[in-house]
Amino acid sequence: MTGEEFRLAAAVADVYGELRLEAVLRRLLQHCAWLTDSAAGSISLIDAAAGHYTKAAEHGALCRLGDRFPLDEGATGRAYGSRRPVVIPEYGQLRAGHLAGGDPVRHRSAAAVPIWWRGDVIAVSVTFAPRAGFFSTRELDELEALTQTAAAAIVRTGADRPDPVPVPATPFTGPFTGRETDVLELLRQGLTYREIATRLRLSPKTVEKHVGAIMRKTGASNRTTAVVTALDNGWLPAGLGNSPHTAIG
């Protein structure tokens, strides 16, 4: 990551700025590239019922845009099958990769990150490393946080299902305490437990307790699913940024 510090809230606001599929995916790719200093990437939409995925957007590399592939093929298939972010050490060694043989990106590593909605993987974002080597754990965490925030935008464009996703018309309410809402909002922004503790002036153990309560109330097994469940149910404010309860030092 180079230049000005990456700001997740600003990136998400930009992704949601125009709810057309092409615009959403293009902006998501741009922010993934900016986050990792990468020059190439792609996004595929998953059709689990039909058993295939479609290359829906690309940036900096020719990934056979618009073509369909089986769900067990390529970097997208690897992430879909694993149900978690995966790193391909060298894309050119991947079985049934979709880049042209002469593309220099083939010799780089690639991070494939699934995008979840209501318990299903609806898309996979693939980002190619800007240089030889691997993505760091932090880069993977940040990519996961960024790409997952786009799930609702993808659904609202109609890419995932024909029926529109309702937007809550009532003021924000939810099952969380004010402090749990603070923690959940910072989880949405991609902060680690230690960073949340520092931001809210709490101990890491207290943050863990709040996260545990959030998991119980959402029925989630991980932080990403907890955030998605809260967004899906309207339990987080629609606007990004700090909640009214948050005390920032």
Automatic annotation (TrEMBL):
InterPro entries tied to this protein: GAF, GAF-like_dom_sf, Sig_transdc_resp-reg_C-effctor, Tscrpt_reg_LuxR_C, WH-like_DNA-bd_sf
Biological process annotations from GO: regulation of DNA-templated transcription
SUPFAM superfamilies: C-terminal effector domain of the bipartite response regulators (SSF46894), GAF domain-like (SSF55781)
Keyword Iron: no
GO terms, molecular function: DNA binding
Coiled-coil intervals, chain numbering: none
Transferase among keywords: no
Signal peptide positions (record): none
Keywords annotated in UniProt: DNA-binding, Transcription, Transcription regulation
Tree of life domain: Bacteria
Domain HTH luxR-type: 168-234
Pfam families listed in its UniProt record: GAF_2, GerE
Full protein name: HTH luxR-type domain-containing protein
